[in-house]
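Final report, closing paragraph on structural work. Over the funding period we assembled a curated collection of sequence-structure pairs, and we close with a single example.
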Amino acid sequence: MRWIRRLRPVLTALVVAVAVVAGGLVTASLWPVTVETDYYAADVRLSPSWADRSSIGTDTVVGSVSARFTGLAPGVQVSPRVKPEITELFASGDAGAASLDVSPQERSRVIGEAVRGVALRFGLGALAGLLAVLLALGMRRRGLPPVRTTLGAVLATVVACGGLGLSAQRTYTADRLLALDSTGLLQLAIANRGLLADVEQRADQATPYLRNLLALSAAMQDEYAPEPSRDADALTVLLVSDVHSANQYALMRTIVEEQGVDVVIDSGDLINLGHVEEARLSNLYGGISSLGVPYVFVSGNHDRNSPGDTSLLDALGRTRGAEVLQPGPGQYREVSVGGLRIAGFNDPRYYGDADDGTTEQQTRARDAWVEALGDTTPPDITVSHEAPALEDAPGRMRVNGHSHVPALDGNRVQVGTFTGGGTLAHFVGGPDAELVGQASSFDVLTFDEECRAQRLVRYQYRAIIEGRPSFDSLSVLNASRIVEPPEEGRTCGGDELEVRPLGE
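Its predicted structure, as stored:
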């Protein structure tokens, strides 16, 4: 029994060490440290999981990244987020790399704050673990533990905390980085860091090609479709869809300027993975604001990540020029531009949902919108993302996207993808990777002064962004055979914008 008495201090020290480390990890995990810069914030916490040891992990809405190190230290979890103040920066038009970057001084400051905060929380948790052990020993003895035991426990606490802190300091250094792993869109961004910026830059460089295409179109229309005169157009509408996070708004701006577009209608899928952060990374908000005309929008099945997610719609609501037709559940608006009435509703689906192939969700969404419309005169243009949602929907013309292929069905116009499938469709991995995509497409629709549809010009082209421009097709259609005639006495023209709620 003598050897047991000799080992008792050692066992007590081990119990104390386990208790203080466990208490410190739990406390630093449940009580994160929040650090902030002008436009960013992050919650920093320790991970109690053994699987996360010696790693720093960051989870974002577009993927995760984990840095693994050699050595032994508690895992660190960082949850970054963008502060609301960044919206004001983008709205001002002054958002650039320099204004968004975090300076080395700021980076050092927030790292120091995070280290001190985590250490404080770990220390408080360790103290709680020490007190719990001493309390248990006292209850067993039905009195205070011996002074020697108390001093030994305190020494064990100091050694455990000091040793763990020293090990963490030695582990998390650049020269001990073992691997960097990532998932989701971040994996794509890390593998090809300039992808999002390159697409925007290529779009700007490609505008001369598109300008030539538009000039060719105008010449063909003047030659082969002289009646009615294009000078008689009172209102011009640009129909686009399925941008999918590719910032090609420089191209769209060229169309707006060259064609005298008064309003852009986007039938959804502005982003890819259902996370609003994609739009910020691609600077889609700045692109929309740069058009200088109203940008009317309904969301598609890629524009949210849960049934109640309105993050993208909320952000667009704060974007200059953007007009959302359904800002939230049960909320509907009619947007009138130059006397042309536009209304519609969002896709009820979301990214990652279980698509069972039925159209019941679309039918319910349409019925809810029709109920809100009530006795109001049906709009000139009704917009939703998927074709089944527009079946039997009222409106002189119905517009949808989703399929990435332009099509016509009675007065329903299906718009192709403006960006050839978007950012992810423009990327192929491998040693000889190039930007590749589907055919790009958009439609230009004109109305006369009496709100009668004139022309629907449908454009398809390929590989402008990829640097190998190819003209696919140009169709000039008599829109009066597609769009139902307006009621008597209507007038259209000008840039007057009016937005009014429906169902109130």
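The first helix runs from residue 2 to 30. The mean pLDDT is 82. We thank the funder for supporting this effort.
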